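We treat protein structure as text, and this decision shapes the records that our systems exchange. This encoding replaces a full spatial description with a residue-level series of whole-number codes. Below, we set out a record of this kind in full and without editing:
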Amino acid sequence: MTKRLAEVAKKAGVSEATVSRVLNGRSGVSEATRASVLTALDVLGYERPTKLRGERGRLVGLVLPELQNPIFPALAEVVTASLAQRGFTPLLAARTIGGVPERDYIEMLLDHQVSGVVFAGGSYALADAEHSHYRALTDRRMPVVMVNAGVDDLGFPHISTDDAVAVEQAYGHLRSLGHQRIGMVMGPEDHVPSRRKLAALEKIAGDDWLVERTNFSMESARLAAGRLIERGVTGMICASDVLALGSIRAARRLGRDVPADVSIVGFDDSALMTCTDPPLTTVRQPIEMMGQAAVDLLVNQIEGSGVQPDELLFEPELVVRGSTGPAPS
């Protein structure tokens, strides 16, 4: 018990006596100090006293679909910094292939009495996936914000990049360089953002395009892009920068030069894309604005302000670098 008091006191920046008063429900402690002690208790993994378990601390869950794609750590950095400025402590849950399922992460966050949850990816973005585990959040009236497009009937607000504008920018760029045969390397068939991108390209190009699908790994992108190149594609639009890098690898393994033979456009403008060979042309997501908007929406819900379950769309920006060039003659 003494060790626990000392650890919580150090984490919260208060005395052990103050921690003891909070845990025993005694008066004489400000609400801000009390919240800091409870947050420290949660972060260190200690159970709250029974009489305090029904109270939410100032913890906010942040669920990431993976950490291999640099865009997600970048978003996490923005969200955690913005949460800290608002007096909240983030509790990070990063999923891995074959690891803890999203359902278990939600249960864990609820057990920690979080004040709200920001999802940066998850099964809500897959139309055919199981979504019933989100009902636990709805049943508790938990403030939730989801980043990235997802299914429509969950009832939570979304923050998304405008996929249609992203495709218009990428496709227009490739066409301006003279590319006629353009392909797309997209996510799974039920991946909602990929569906949006494909729908946008269909409006622009009709049936004059090709598509291959992947599971968002670099190796699967290499295989998908290789099939497109063998079908005569000279310009490719990819659903992420990771897929674009896999596509560059495919071109080189087939003896093609990027961009002399094949031009490739990514999506995200994640870290180090200026340092790849060649530097990647990509459609930049406004991650900083999106992350701050997600936190604003979440905090408004936590503080009792009404938030509509709508989708906020942010306009992307085409960043032209060395992976695109004139179509081969």
Summary: The domain at 2-52 is CATH 1.10.260.40 (434 Repressor (Amino-terminal Domain)). The longest helix spans residues 287-302. The chain has a mean pLDDT of 89.
